[in-house]
Fold:
Amino acid sequence: MVRISIAIESGSDFIRNKIMRKRLTRTKIIDTVKLIKQYPQLHASAFFIMGMPEETEETLMDTYNLIKEIDFDKIHLMNIVPFPGTEVFEQAKKDGILMNIDTKDMYKADDLYFKNYERFFIKPYKLEVSEMLDFRYKCEELINKKTGKGKN
Structure:
């Protein structure tokens, strides 16, 4: 088995291409997944990030809908971690939307994945943390249904 991982990051064209500057169209994502699925020996994973400062209900729903549409073997949904020195960290710091930042613990991989499942580091401009948490639960339910797995 060969594993392929694709860092899609967001189902929102705006977040993915304007904010993250990935230059990755929805059509390209879907076409790539279809191509991968032609080869049963390939195991495909997708990575998504939620909680960018510009995140909205609409951009979250775009992510949900793309997760619903694509056919991956494993789907990972992570909260954005704004590491010091990154553009998103500086933006969030300048705009006063950083939360739960303890830089000495930020670099522990197990903390980032397992302990930060319900922990957000940025409060988006147009969303409450409770809305992001509700979205996470909704998405996890979909992911578990699609992949037949427990916590992604």
